[in-house]
Structure to design on (474 residues):
């Protein structure tokens, strides 16, 4: 319904403050992860490229570009660390799972998803904000590592841009076999134009090579895996694969959603309403798809040499009702959560999976800091030891020395020191936040709010100015 509404009437503009020219230098805060012991930390160097910003400034009269060059030159690059290059040379499979959430993961009902979420890198405080263009902006945020521009389909707007840092482009430059799949129409959201530009040699979807799937709605994630894994699993080159799934798509009922109907028996005994049961049932198809994928990797002897990264495009907004009353509007999401949720931030809490068979030989790597979709690109780039410039991405490598920051569409934010609700203009300090008083706390709120505004502004400029093409000519 929302997709159709946006198509006809356009996407709603975010309610944002006025957007004056942001200050050039962001204030910074120390990370809670910095080693405070007396032992000197190892200097691994920085994730930073050799870019002559002074020359760029000298050779343009465009005021916005001058502001951008100065801004990015002034940003501190994040440090490489003991996890840098941990996955160097491995295969990569990235999955954007339609309307996925942490509510889907259950030790008994979805054992494969539970295994992948808890036996690799275990993220306990992950957020996938909704940016306004539902699925497409959700993809954009984690594939690009920058904030989507409000009011437009940012992915579609980037179709002719140089999107230099996407994992597809980074790994294709290293000689990887790079393929992208989607079990829905190849032209929906203009993916036939955008996804090849992400660095994949083929975009294989309904209408462009992914044939043989049952003609039902939504289509099967399991069948997509069954019709695609053979394309790359025996490749003599390392492979870099992207999937956008669709089985978890609304509506959430047993009459109009074939995946929910197909898997109805798996949720029959759950103590939930039918919409919640239908949501969990259709996501069973993702569980079966991941089970098949892992089994194929293990059978081929490639599980230890492959990394799976999985997250959602957005929370399951198909569970919302049409009510203007918040309790009624979010009653089904509250039901899954087991409590009344905070609809400003907690609504967007989700799951991130980064798993490799090689990780199961050790204890899970647990990340408790707040993490969000924009952190995925720099984190995975660092784990694979790829050459990238951390100053040019809005997210952070979660293993670096950068302080954690999650920002939302309405300029709310979460750090390791607290949660700021921009709608109510209230701040809730985290336990042990360590503020010396109200003045210190207010200065911190102002500082982080300035950082957030800068990240939104300069992410917008990257898209509008095709900025990476100025830095890295095609």
């Amino acid at each position: 319904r929302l997709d159709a509404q946006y198509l006809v009437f356009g996407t709603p503009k975010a309610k944002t403050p006025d957007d004056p020219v942001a200050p050039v230098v962001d204030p910074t805060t120390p990370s809670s992860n910095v080693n405070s012991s007396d032992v000197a930390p190892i200097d691994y160097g920085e994730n930073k490229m050799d870019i002559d910003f002074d020359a760029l400034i000298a050779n343009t009269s465009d005021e916005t570009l001058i502001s951008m060059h100065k801004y990015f030159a002034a940003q501190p690059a994040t440090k490489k660390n003991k996890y840098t290059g941990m996955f160097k040379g491995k295969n990569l499979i990235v999955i954007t799972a339609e309307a996925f959430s942490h509510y889907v993961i259950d030790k008994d009902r979805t054992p494969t998803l539970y295994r992948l979420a808890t036996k690799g890198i275990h993220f306990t405080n992950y957020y996938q904000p909704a940016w306004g263009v539902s699925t497409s902006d959700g993809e954009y945020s984690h594939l690009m590592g920058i904030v989507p521009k409000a009011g437009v389909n940012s992915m579609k707007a980037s179709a002719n841009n140089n999107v230099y840092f996407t994992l597809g482009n980074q790994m294709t430059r290293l000689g990887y076999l790079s393929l992208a799949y989607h079990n829905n129409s190849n032209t929906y959201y203009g993916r036939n134009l955008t996804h090849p530009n992400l660095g994949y040699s083929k975009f294989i979807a309904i209408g462009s090579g992914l044939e043989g799937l049952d003609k039902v709605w939504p289509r099967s994630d399991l069948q997509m895996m069954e019709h695609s894994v053979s394309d790359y699993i025996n490749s003599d080159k390392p492979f870099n694969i992207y999937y956008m799934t669709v089985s978890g798509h609304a509506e959430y009922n047993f009459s109009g959603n074939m995946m929910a109907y197909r898997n109805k028996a798996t949720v029959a005994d759950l103590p939930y309403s039918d919409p919640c049961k239908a949501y969990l049932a259709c996501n069973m198809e993702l569980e079966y798809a991941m089970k098949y994928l892992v089994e194929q990797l293990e059978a081929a002897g490639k599980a230890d040499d492959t990394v799976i990264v999985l997250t959602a495009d957005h929370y399951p907004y198909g569970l919302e009702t049409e009510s203007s009353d918040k309790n009624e509007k979010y009653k089904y999401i509250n039901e899954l959560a087991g409590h009344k949720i905070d609809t400003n931030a907690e609504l967007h809490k989700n799951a991130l999976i980064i798993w490799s068979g090689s990780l199961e030989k050790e204890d899970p790597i647990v990340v408790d800091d707040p993490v969000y979709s924009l952190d995925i690109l720099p984190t995975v780039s660092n784990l694979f030891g790829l050459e990238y410039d951390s100053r040019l991405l809005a997210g952070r490598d979660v293993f670096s020395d950068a302080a954690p920051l999650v920002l939302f569409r309405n300029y709310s934010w979460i750090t390791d020191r607290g949660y700021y609700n921009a709608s109510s203009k209230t701040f809730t300090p985290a336990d042990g936040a360590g503020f010396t008083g109200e003045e210190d706390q207010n200065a911190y709120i102002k500082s982080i709010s300035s950082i957030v505004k800068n990240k939104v502004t300069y992410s917008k400029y990257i898209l509008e100015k095709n900025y990476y093409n100025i830095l890295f000519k095609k």
